[in-house]
Structures are given as structure tokens and as C-alpha cells.
């Protein structure tokens, strides 16, 4: 009886639905499976080989807050069934991030080798290409696994990445249809590795390549990109610009609306504000939020990084 219900759920993604409806279904199923670990475990063998579920559940409902637990298990199942270079790059990069967030250097190094084993092609979708560049940025900084990619190399690569078509009119821009996936992930990588001047130059390069981003509102990736810029402005001493850039962000209401983004991307936003905010009470609250998140989600990476950035900020303030 239960197996029949599971098969019915796994077939939902094959119903004749619109793009918007399929994405909505993926997020509904994702939230339901978040709350029921046993059902999630039982459904994975049925969802992972299903092409529609691969696209809409595994690739669209990217549940990074659960990456070290249930979604990490989902990625492993997905990698066994979708063998295209794009899918393998996507999944193996998430496997690397999973290990890094757990502060497991040995597993991260092994995952990095698996990422590098996948052939890279210039026509690959922007998001997996971006995750691959992000992986290399973090590996060079946190694992010392080779030289860090140069900004000039990243710019040259970014100019070769296929541009996505215009955002679909029947699907809210808040979600996944973001035209500059490669550029977003490089920005996040430069942010986490504290390459502040490179990050500012990358922000400028991104808006030259994608001028539509300057007027794109209601998109989580675009607002995070701007949050990273505000942090970089503060770190290079352009404090008035940083405060103004931070004040213009519309990220908080978006993260409340987009629950599946909220947990993980809220942590990135707290980290960005920690690099920006001069007020001690607020900084203390941000640090507490990050430490609590790291504990709740089994991601000590965020606790270590937040404390390091806070110590560095205090030392910088003292020198000034």
C-alpha cells in the first residue's frame, strides 16, 4: 500500500503541468520530505531515476540548508542516475560543498578530485559552470588545493558562458530563472574567500555582461550579489557607499517569502552584514545567529568563518 502511494508521488512530476506549476510542486514535495525523513528515504529510489523529478526536485529544489543531512543523501542518489557532464558537475560540486561545510578536509579533497574528473565544456549551463568555479575558489583558499583562479581568468571564462534567455513571464523572478548563474557563484566564492577588490571588479564586470541585473528586483541571487558588494565596499574602506548599498537591499523580505532559500542564504546574508555592520550589539546578534545556524545545520564552517571574520574586524578596528 505504502509503495503504491510512493509511486504515485514519484509520478507527480510527469503530470501535464506548466513550468511554474512543476516548480511549485517540487518545492511542496521538498518541504514535505524535509519534515519526514523516513518517507524521504523511501522515495529517493523512485525519484532519482525519474527525468522530470531529476530536473524539478533535485536540480530546482536545491535545499542547501539540508545539504549535510537529507539533501546530501538526495544528491548521492541523483548522481547514480543522471550521468551528463552538467549533472555530474552540479552534484559533485554539492558533494564538495557538503564536506567543506562539515569541516571534513579529507572528504572535501576527495570530492574536489571527482569534480575535476568531469570534462568541462564551454556550452555547459551557467549554474554548473559557476559551481565549478566556486569550488575551485573555495578549494584554493580553504584546502590550499592549488593556486586560486585569477580574476582575469574568471572574466575570460565568464565571457564564454552561454547567456540564458529572458526570464519567463509566467514564473516569478524570485526563484531560479536568474540569467547570470556563473557570475553569481563566482561572486559568492570571492566573498567567502575575502577577495574584496576582486569582488568589486567582478560586480562591475557582471553588470557590463548582464545590464538587465541593474533593474532586476525580487530575485534572491541578485540581492545576495549586491549584499556581497556592500560587504566588499566596507572592507576596502568605502564605508558610506557600503551603508547606502546595504540600506538599498530588499533581501530580508525575499528570504522570508522564499522559505526554501531562507536558512542557508540567510546565513550568507548575516555573514555579509557582519562584514559591513559597525554596531557592536548588531554584530553580536549576527555572530550568535551564525553560530546557532552552524550547530543546527551541522555546518561548523559557518561558525569558524564567522568567528574568524569577527576577530579580524576587531583587530582592524583596533589598528585604526
Rough outline: globular
Largest sheet: none
Radius of gyration over all CA atoms, rounded: 19 Å
Q: How helix-rich are the residues, as a percent range?
A: 55-70%
> Which segments are poorly predicted (pLDDT under 50) over 5 or more consecutive residues?
166-175
Helix/sheet category: mainly alpha
Distance between the termini: 69 Å
Name the beta content range.
under 5%
SSE pattern, N- to C-terminal: HHHHHHHHHHHHHHHHH
Number of strands: 0
What is the average of the pLDDT values? 88
Count of discrete alpha- or pi-helical segments spanning 4 or more residues: 17
What structural keywords apply?
69% helix, mainly alpha, 17 helices, 320 residues, single chain, globular
Explained architecture:
The chain has 320 residues and is an all-alpha fold. It is 69% helix and 0% strand. The protein contains 17 helices and no strands. It has helices at residues 2-10, 19-34, 37-47, 51-59, 70-79, 85-101, 105-117, 126-143, 151-158, 181-192, 196-209, 220-235, 239-247, 251-257, 259-274, 280-296, 300-319. Helix 3 (37-47) packs parallel to helix 5 (70-79), helix 10 (181-192) packs antiparallel against helix 11 (196-209) and helix 11 packs antiparallel against helix 12. The longest helix is centred in the C-terminal third of the chain and has 20 residues, at 300-319. The chain is globular, with a radius of gyration of 19 Å.
TL;DR?
The protein is mainly alpha-helical and 320 residues long. The chain is 69% helix and 0% strand. Helix 10 packs antiparallel against helix 11.
Amino acid at each position: 500500500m505504502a509503495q503504491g502511494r510512493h509511486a504515485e508521488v514519484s509520478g507527480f512530476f510527469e503530470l501535464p503541468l506548466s513550468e511554474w506549476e512543476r516548480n511549485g510542486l517540487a518545492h511542496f514535495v521538498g518541504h514535505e520530505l524535509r519534515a519526514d525523513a523516513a518517507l524521504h528515504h523511501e522515495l529517493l529510489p523512485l525519484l532519482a531515476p525519474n527525468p522530470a523529478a531529476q530536473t524539478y526536485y533535485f536540480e530546482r529544489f536545491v535545499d542547501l540548508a539540508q545539504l549535510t543531512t537529507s539533501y546530501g543523501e538526495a544528491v548521492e542518489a541523483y548522481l547514480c542516475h543522471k550521468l551528463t557532464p552538467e549533472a555530474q558537475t552540479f552534484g559533485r560540486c554539492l558533494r564538495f560543498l557538503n564536506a567543506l561545510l562539515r569541516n571534513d578536509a579529507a572528504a572535501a579533497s576527495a570530492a574536489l578530485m571527482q569534480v575535476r574528473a568531469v570534462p568541462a565544456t564551454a556550452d555547459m549551463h551557467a549554474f554548473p559552470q559557476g559551481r565549478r568555479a566556486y569550488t575551485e575558489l573555495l578549494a584554493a583558499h580553504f584546502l590550499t588545493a592549488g593556486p586560486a583562479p585569477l580574476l582575469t581568468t574568471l572574466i575570460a571564462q565568464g565571457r564564454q558562458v552561454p547567456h540564458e534567455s529572458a526570464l519567463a513571464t509566467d514564473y516569478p523572478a524570485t526563484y531560479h530563472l536568474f540569467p547570470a548563474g556563473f557570475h553569481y557563484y563566482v561572486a559568492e566564492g570571492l566573498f567567502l574567500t575575502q577577495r574584496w577588490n576582486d569582488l568589486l571588479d567582478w560586480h562591475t564586470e557582471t553588470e557590463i555582461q548582464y545590464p538587465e541585473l541593474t533593474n532586476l528586483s525580487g530575485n534572491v541571487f541578485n540581492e545576495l550579489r549586491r549584499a556581497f558588494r556592500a560587504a566588499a565596499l566596507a572592507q576596502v574602506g568605502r564605508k558610506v557607499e557600503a551603508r547606502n548599498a546595504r540600506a538599498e537591499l530588499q533581501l530580508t523580505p525575499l528570504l522570508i517569502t522564499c522559505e526554501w532559500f531562507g536558512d542557508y542564504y540567510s546565513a550568507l546574508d548575516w555573514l555579509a552584514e557582519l562584514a559591513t555592520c559597525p554596531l557592536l550589539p548588531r554584530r553580536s546578534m549576527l555572530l550568535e545567529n551564525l553560530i546557532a545556524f552552524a550547530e543546527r545545520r551541522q555546518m561548523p564552517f559557518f561558525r569558524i568563518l564567522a568567528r574568524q571574520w569577527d576577530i579580524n574586524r576587531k583587530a582592524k578596528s583596533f589598528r585604526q
